[in-house]
Amino acid sequence: MSDKNIVVAFGGVSPEHEVSVLSAMQVIAALEDSHYNLIPLYVSKSGRWLTGKPLLELENYQDLDTLIKEASPCTFTHNKLGKPVLQETESGWFQSPESSTIHAVIPAFHGSEGENGSFQGTCEMYNIPYAGSGVFASSLGMDKVKAKELCRAHNIPVVDGIDFYEQEWAEKQEEIIERAEQLDYPLIIKPVTLGSSIGVNRAEKRDELIKAVETTFRFDNSLMVEKAVTPLLEVNCSILGTPQEMQHSVCERPLGQDETLSFEDKYQNEEGTQKGMASADRQIPADISNELTQKIQSLSRKIFSLFRASGVARLDFLINENTKEVYFNEINTIPGSFSFYLWEESEIDMQDLMLELIDIAIEQHQRKIGRIRSYETNLLSEKAVKGIKGLKGTDNKS
């Protein structure tokens, strides 16, 4: 067995928990015959970190209570040599907790703390290489409002909209409704920091708007209301690489039952079985003109670089089917199923894609640790300490 351990991290306290499990199982299946040793890091719905071989099998997730009992609590730490490890925090009567050095982590989270940069920041605190975008791109990509503000500043077209917090809605509901109605119906209401179309609603009139807002606040404390693009054509494109060197995939056209794709459209096939984004109905390549394809691919590369994204990302666009106007909708820094189905068209299968993500993670990490990371000066010298102690006797009266 290889001594290079790849930790696949997934689950999390998020409405997209199950989708994350599906993506992680796809990663594990793709790498099971690679030269890496795979270690699961499952974050339960209550936030517990767990590891263990039972977590590698998808069928075990049908009984979460039993699975969690069979798994072992764990955490990141460092061994005696200073290397980052994943260590079990409990052990049996006659054995020590197992500890595994970490070659790299593949985050397979969707939404909330796993995709918004906080887990990526934890990896950086422990000096662990990790696949995908860093803290900046991850947090920016999760905040739809700030992402679109950045795009506006760089002349990338986005749909007109407003955003507000739940407290503002409670205090200024009529004012917010009037601002929203100035955009004109139909309107799209969506959470600011969720993906997978969870909590997204459409309103054709005022009472539907109010109901949609109240419903969507169940998922997030900040919402955005946008003018619906109609007739709507959705087109996505994936980017693989770094801000300096990247390649684009073919474009896809997701197909849903309504103009706005639902969670079920994205993640469940006709029989209702969940297989991640790979189960969604889609047209690959998208049946759009070469000119429109090239425009979307160019915008995708520009936004990927602008956001300082890394690894693989999927960029989603809204197109007015009549005028062919293109609007940036969002960037998914950990896309469902890692958008492997788009890279298959470029003869990059799931395993090749995962291996490339690991290589990029290691390369990016080596570049970072190759820089000066500490400044050799002794601020805790005897003179400095005396100076600080002297502050205690300072007369602050004035």
TrEMBL record:
Its main location: cytoplasm. It catalyses: 2 D-alanine + ATP = D-alanyl-D-alanine + ADP + phosphate + H(+). InterPro entries: ATP-grasp, ATP_grasp_subdomain_1, D-Ala_lig_Van_CS, D_ala_D_ala, Dala_Dala_lig_C, Dala_Dala_lig_N, PreATP-grasp_dom_sf. Its EC number is 6.3.2.4. Pfam families: Dala_Dala_lig_C, Dala_Dala_lig_N. Keywords: ATP-binding, Cell shape, Cell wall biogenesis/degradation, Cytoplasm, Ligase, Magnesium, Manganese, Metal-binding, Nucleotide-binding, Peptidoglycan synthesis. SUPFAM superfamilies: Glutathione synthetase ATP-binding domain-like (SSF56059), PreATP-grasp domain (SSF52440). Coiled coil: none annotated. PROSITE patterns: ATP_GRASP (PS50975), DALA_DALA_LIGASE_1 (PS00843), DALA_DALA_LIGASE_2 (PS00844). Its cofactor is Mn(2+); Mg(2+). It is an enzyme of class 6 (ligase). Residues 148-359 form the ATP-grasp domain. It is found in: Cytoplasm. Belongs to the D-alanine--D-alanine ligase family. NCBIfam families: D_ala_D_alaTIGR, PRK01966.1-4. Cell wall formation. This is D-alanine--D-alanine ligase. It comes from Fodinibius salicampi.
